[in-house]
Design a protein that fits this description.
Largest sheet: 5 strands, mixed
Number of strands: 12
CATH topology of the largest domain: Maf protein
Number of helices: 5
Shape: flat
CATH class of the largest domain: Alpha Beta
Order of helices and strands: EHEHEEEEHEEHEHEEE
Radius of gyration: 23 Å
Number of domains: 3
CATH architecture of the largest domain: Alpha-Beta Complex
Helix content: 25-40%
Amino acid sequence: MFKGRTLLIASKHEKEKVITPILEKVLGVKCIVAKNFDTDELGTFTGEIERTDDPITTVRKKCQLAMEVSNCDMAIASEGSFGPHPSVFFVSADDEFLIFIDKKNGLEIIARELSTETNFNGLEIGSEKELLDFANDSKFPSHGLILRKSKDSKEDIFKGIATTKKLIEAFNNLIDKHGKAYVETDMRAMYNPTRMKVIEKATEKLVEKIGSECPKCKMPGYSVTDSKSGLLCENCGTPTRSTLAHILSCRSCSFTEEKLYPFGKKLEGPTFCDFCNP
């Protein structure tokens, strides 16, 4: 279905470095990067252009717009969001979505990787020592930094700083003009190797989904879309909140099936039972 075809990567931040090797090896496609297409039009990390849509809508638009300007019928794009982990609130997280669209075969497959492996951070600073301490904690200079007047300022922004000389020059510039500065991690993929690794993991998940065929119509993308709790407690037999089954479904023909005991356990320990351990 994919071998020998051209796959467009909708990115301006060098994500093809981790995406291309996986897709070309597993799918047999030839990857090219979209030209004359600026993904920043849909939003920038530094806020000069606000992202108005949710991540999935945004990543879908990236793919569709890139295919239009490149006259290509198959593409992949990614979109990342950074902030508190949705369930571990005091830990920062990188939430990456990848979408694969094949217009020829009517396919849209999405993969997600939620990771706490991120250096995402920002701090208002007033001294060179504070700046260099932040830089050290942020894995600088292998990971880039951004400096600006204040957290929400859209003026005097210095992006992609990757040397100590440029870092101190930008800091002194802001201090001389404004008397303060705000430093933050540059989360664009080409300046953030940690994020690149998360995108790589998301790509691996994506090709796994693409390689999973629907047992009914044989189309790619058959995968887990929901889960069902209710694994019985081994002590009292009461249903627990632990996963009893995964629900797998096909976007192409809507076939659905339930697979019991996806983690190999048929009973749950009393530690995780609300009756035995209220």
